[in-house]
Records
---
Amino acid sequence: MCGIVGVASNAPVNQLIYDALLLLQHRGQDAAGIVTQMDRKFFMHKAKGMVRDVFRTRNMRSLPGNCGLGQVRYPTAGNAFSEEEAQPFYVNAPFGLVLVHNGNLTNAKALKAELFSTDHRHINTESDSEVLLNVLAHELEKTTRGLPLTPADVFKAVEGVHKRVKGSYAVIALIAGHGLLAFRDPFGIRPLCIGKGKDGTYMLASESVALEGTLHQFERNIAPGEAVFIDMHTQLHSQQCAAVSNLNPCIFEYVYLARPDSSMDGISVYQARLNLGETLAKRVISTVPPNEIDVVIPIPESSRPSAAQLAQLLGLPYREGFVKNRYVGRTFIMPGQSVRKKSVRQKLNVIASEFKGRNVLLVDDSIVRGTTSREIVQMAREAGARKVYMASAAPPVRYPNVYGIDMPTKDELVAHNRTVDEIRQIIDCDALIYQDVDAMKQAVASAVLPGYPKVQGFDASCFDGIYVTGDVSDADIARLNENRPSQQDESEGESDRSRLALPNAS
């Protein structure tokens, strides 16, 4: 998962892109990058780290121009340590291209071999985004053959990309001297939307919050398979470029990844999480009588809307029992299991008075590995809780995700090949309640905003094992896992196979 933004304006865009990236920081903390264009020349700065640390005044001054791109990176493939794999990526022909990408290509290895043997293009990193850039460059070269570039040529090139590339991809690219291009995979797995400022500036971004937070009016979502091209005169052209398209957004965006104040594909993220709490309440009643629960406590932060709605429906007190330290590194970055365990204690602290002598229901957005959940349950018991129940607003995570969320391998997923009671014993809680898969889909689909059609399908592959692109086998998953980023722990000699930024993913 990453956050991407593109801006086409008649005024300098460096500060605007920086501000938008701050609003998308939750989508990636590994690296950040900005590229701008002035007089057909690109100016780029990218490095590992958070946006506020990567860009200083001197860096911002070196990014002139009225159009540009930005990305916050959360690696799901390639080398997590390499600054060279931070985005944007650049290639000099044709015209000069830079690109930012959110998603994950499932056929990157085959494409890389094809680019070398057939297209005669060199890939210098392990990033699938560089593969995607070179596929786009090759398709653009085929459509133009030295002729002036027209929007029709650009759309023809995107058609070629759709035919060759498999997986998930929301893309924004700059074509030197010609304009800004954005397109989305035919399933619309990863989000992308467009807005416009009062001065005529266009902004494209992963989430609507980036538009609204920079005073741009949200206009619409980019449709699955659609391409949008904004020329140097800030004229917008759009076309459907996929032979077949069908909206199946990633449901994990609504469960956890996106900011609650965003809307994506006509669905309010906040309302979706309230709905998840409502359906979860029904599951709780069937497992634990409400009169046996004294208090409902969320595990910060994404679970708060669900927990609050659940508590209200059950007529139970809602309390904040954990305080989050925002200045401690995320636990998913910690390389070894014992280091991760220590980091949970540094990251969360209990308010003992909310636990002592009570039967508490802890609510989380999801449970992935289960190790952090176990640690949190232990913290609740140490604070004096009589009984500790746990409820997950998402169903059991039983399968890897291949579309841009770095889920662990099957063997590392606590729910894989285990019953709910077996998971409960591992987490060591007194009762464990999971959301139902169909109820989750219905809850999210029901959060549709006025004027939008109801989304008919989702990618929920990590919950139901159904990969919407229809081209993913067990062998493909094994191959993709070989290219996942790892964090080597020099002191313990073990690697962290998942970088998923979930409170209880590590």
---
Amino acid sequence: MAIKTPAGSIVDIPRGTRDFGPSDAIALKEITSVIEEVFARFGFSPIITPALELTQVLNAKAYGADQDKELYVLSGNDAALRFDLTVPLARYMAMNKDIALPFKRYQIDRVWRRDEPQRMRSREFMQADIDIVGSSSVSSDAECIAASLAAIEALGITRYTLLINSRPILNAILKSFNVPAQSVAAVIRLIDKMPKIGISETIKQLSAAGINADAAQEIMSFITQSMTNSEKLDKVAIDAPQSKPEAQRLLGLLDALSRYGLKGEVEVDFALARGLDYYTGAVWETVIEEDGKRLPTIVAGGRYDGLVGVYSKAGAPAVGSSIGISRVFDILGPKHSRKTYSTVFVARIGDEDYQYAIEVASKLRSRGVRTDVDVTSRGISKQLEYANSLGIRYVAIVGMKERGESRVRLRDMQEGTEELLDLGAVIEKLTK
């Protein structure tokens, strides 16, 4: 909520952005730490790219109908905030031609899109991306999908459905219904909106876009029919013969994914489009429901074999998967309530005990114990109250007696117990 300063000016933050206080920031960092560890375990290496990219780089490949509207362009129009982490990767590959392929990279960072803010959709948000550049095999697709799903499972998100489709299959379906080639991209973007606007509205919008009303109805009936995964792929290979090679590839991808031991369900969904225009092969996203309602997706990705070639003559096949960290936080954040990293707070009875308090804190910190220390000269009761307000379990109290004996009085705020211990015993207790 905006507030007024004494001078009367408004103090606020831009729409679609937010602050993260200590407890939220700790939860966010814990989420990213878990994801990063899983990515590293799968053999992905980190890169860091600028928040700003040249507008000519971002506009070299159209990746959405509203791209120009959603970019945050800087004054002078020569640079803009990155829209995602995939285009910067393609640009990075073009500038670093000596990288050994396949290149397995991850990047965890913020991106910006100037669209309308709503629940779980912000203008500034964090993503965790993994990509494999230089391999066209199904195993690359499976590795990216599995790593991103293993990451959310490590965070405790195990009840999800992975929807998976293929752009070539969707293109073949549309061609079998005589959708003109020049209309395919627009039709795919409309189909991509179907989960939000419903089948009837999608048919209406397809008709408004120039697709015959009967054809629009038949398209939606075909892509939303209920069958098993293998039945769907068998049927599309017969009814849209051009899709047969990609249907076989998708079948191989499903088989590869079955070997990773993932906990969620996997469903072939011909209605899944993924709106970004640079996808050329398999596309996927997760579905999670909360109180019977479908939440915005937290894992999504696909194959984009043509994107690197936009920036380099050599080009390279590529595939990637992205986790929406900000959305994961919205699901998991309330479960995290830590307000500080500190395990122990060093409290001093009097000002004359300050030097000993710093000595105790320094020794604890040198042994890896996360330690806070009083810096205010407040009374001991206020110090205990402060430590309790932050949820710090242990308070190491030092006074004249403790200083004389080179010991501390360790209070367990949770159990309500207190022990007089030498520093070695405190370190042993707090590092177990």
---
Amino acid sequence: MSRRRQQLPTEPVTTVIENLSHDGRGVAHINGKTTFIRGALPQETVIFEYTHQQSRFDEGKVLEVLKASPQRITPRCPHFGVCGGCNLQHLAPSAQIALKQDTLINHFTHIGKVQPETIAPPLQAEVWGYRRKARLGVKYVIKKQAVLVGFREQQGRFLAELTRCDVLHPRLGERIMALRELIEKLEGKQQIAQIEVAIDDEQAALVFRNLAPLSQSDREILSQFAKDNQLFFYLQSGGINTITPLYPENLPLASLIYHLPQEELSFAFTPYDFTQVNTAINQQMVQQALTWLTPQPTDRILDLFCGLGNFTLPLAKRANKVIGVEGDANLLNRAEMNAHQQNIESIHYHIADLTKPDFNMPWMKSHYNKVLLDPPRSGALEIIRALPFTGTQRIVYISCNPATLARDAGELVHQKGFRLVQAGVMDMFPHTAHVESMALFVR
């Protein structure tokens, strides 16, 4: 028997917003029940409508702001409120940082049962045009007789109808409409499903996911656009092993390069490799990690989830030996190549699934006086529990998820004998509630 469709209240409701949730929604209590309201800010009086109800909480969206917060600003993007690419443009940047700091501290308190001895100043940079990695949806909408390119709508499964994007790097963000018009010209416009975007310090690479082979005419149209706009174009018909260059034809896969100027280092990468989306914050992040970890010529350092070597290479310029461990073989190959091309010989790389530690691996049996962790959103609990940390005096933990950082901090403090000396946020994703942070643990 099918469930009856949920019947939501039809009349708008007026309420006062008490605070913000960790994902940036206003929080109110109506008849004793928590309600999360999209588009509302603390101390505001708003009129909202319900969008979802369940037993523990309700959800809604703002229809009108009767009394605005002093922290409310006018969103720069004309698509704000519809596009799901970012959700905090209506909140002043300083207040966005405060929200992220509060989120981090609250997670430490409630999940890890720990508190940092010092709150580090936030790492901040330009809040517009910062995003250099993105996956854009593509859809030919028959009813509109038009191609859409961009992010999904908030709380929806449809693509937002974008004409530009101010958080994307201008080489792409200002070309959204041009990309829509380009794909509309193709015979196979219904076969383009998404565009993977990667932008380095000088070039922009776009990987078009084509669900069926494109005609020679379509390939020529795409190539001419890439040539005219000085872009790198690739086609992808299946998995990442099917990515092939379209323009220029002889383009190598690892065609992109980003730099760490202060370290005089460069990193070659492919459009599908993991790299940080925000170049300015990444440069600050590496410098802060080096400052906190204080690598010395006698140090033996373990870099877990090392990726392309973003931290491994600068550490190796200072330490006696660095061991880099990564689960993605392709990333590890690029890390080895980047080290070799820059004559850095003090690194030893190992491939390993760090969610399933193997105690027989030689690197697991060695001692390290310093450790750097840069795990995915799932955190590093398994490898933290597995490592003895014999002789380890300092750990720097880079996090993209405050919940798993807090959980792992609890393990390091309560089970492994470390102090949480300092922690702070990094504004890697301005105008979103996404929290990136760094923490220092000292024996």
